[in-house]
Specification:
Chain lengths: 104, 252
């Protein structure tokens, strides 16, 4: 296999997997239980993603560093109903500042 | 299919808010393409292959895993690289089950929508209370991430590590905070909160023992457990939302 072939095969596979979610017949997804599950699926995946992005370090170890403080700041701002952009910028600035100070 | 004609128009202020949110997410996540471009070239791919991956594969987790495996194992590891990238892409397929419901797309638009179905576009879509805003959030975010991810891939492949680590600027934390803010309005539903808590627990417990990327896919079980358990207590996707974005001004 050439490197180009690997790139193309993996890319096409990625698109086909994405498409799979769009070609499931509506009749299959229409049931009440099914629609409850599909509605909750992105919530589960994204919540898990947040955990991985916030406290998981290299090799899958759990680490507390600048990220958890930044996300904590974001949650406080969410409770204060701050603007979305303010929340994102404050979290980034918090992590950048802590790292500049040599922590996390 | 969604019936766009019967929906009330979205006020301009809300539209601008959703678009601004989309491009904020695009900057926070898309800039990571610099790391990807630099890593791809360091792993032995040239600029063209890095760019084709960002255009065609277009899903960050899979792309990073693909080039990392090729970089450490060489071409002999290509089957493993393809398999791992595909496995990590499964979550996009699961997102499609839900995003296809509110996008109501067919033909070429369906293929484009599927291609843009990633963490960011899905999160920005389901974060919105109004169906029209869900579609704007999905499309604008998908487009924003696609454009910025590809431009920054090019920059990273050309200039390597000259930009330094995006973490110095806190971009990783900014992206995580963006996902938290997008999930936030959904957590007024009890089922969604229970699902999120269970999924986070699964991710915490499985991360030290499972390969990178797998814990997120395993956490899909949380949606199955909560969704199938609460028979007869259906909460629609929009229930429990007062129609405001996180941080939006509570006064109309």
């Amino acid at each position: 296999m050439t490197l180009w072939a690997a790139v193309v095969i993996a890319s096409v596979a990625s698109l086909l997997i994405k498409l799979a979610g769009y070609v499931v017949p509506e009749s299959v997804l229409a049931g009440e239980r099914t629609s409850r599950v599909t509605t909750l699926l992105p919530v589960a995946l994204l919540a898990a993603l947040v955990v991985v992005q916030t406290v998981v370090g290299p090799g899958g170890s759990l680490v507390l560093d600048a990220r958890i403080v930044a996300v904590g700041v974001a949650m406080v701002l969410l409770l204060l109903r701050a603007n979305f952009l303010v929340i994102v910028l404050a979290a980034g600035a918090t992590a950048a500042l802590l790292r500049a100070l040599g922590w996390g | 299919m969604t019936d766009a004609a019967s929906e009330p128009a979205l006020p301009d202020a809300r539209r601008r808010e959703v678009v601004r949110q989309a491009w904020s997410v695009g900057v926070a996540s898309g800039t990571y393409g610099i790391s990807f471009g630099a890593l791809a070239v360091a792993a032995g791919l040239d600029l063209w292959k890095a760019q084709v991956l960002s255009v065609l594969m277009f899903t960050g987790g899979s792309q990073f895993a693909f080039v990392s495996i090729l970089g450490s194992g060489g071409l002999g590891e290509a089957p493993a690289a393809i398999a791992t990238a595909s496995m990590l892409g499964i979550r996009n397929g699961l997102y499609g089950l839900q995003t296809s419901q509110f996008l109501g797309v067919a033909g070429v638009r369906r293929i484009v929508a599927a291609h843009l179905t990633i963490d960011e576009s899905t999160a920005a879509g389901i974060a919105q209370p109004e169906p029209r805003a869900q579609r704007i959030g999905f499309w604008q975010t998908g487009l924003a991430v696609f454009v910025l991810w590809n431009l920054s891939t090019l920059a990273g492949a050309l200039l390597g590590d000259a930009f330094g680590d995006p973490r110095t600027l806190g971009l990783d934390a900014a992206a995580a905070a963006a996902f938290v803010a997008l999930l936030w309005p959904r957590l007024r539903s009890r089922d969604a909160t229970a699902t999120a808590v269970l999924a986070m627990f699964i991710a915490l417990v499985t991360s030290p023992v499972l390969p990178a990327g797998v814990p997120v896919i395993v956490s899909a079980a949380a949606a199955l457990v909560i969704g199938l358990r609460r028979a007869g207590r259906h909460e629609g996707p929009l229930e429990g939302s007062d129609g405001s974005l996180p941080g939006s001004d509570p006064t109309p």
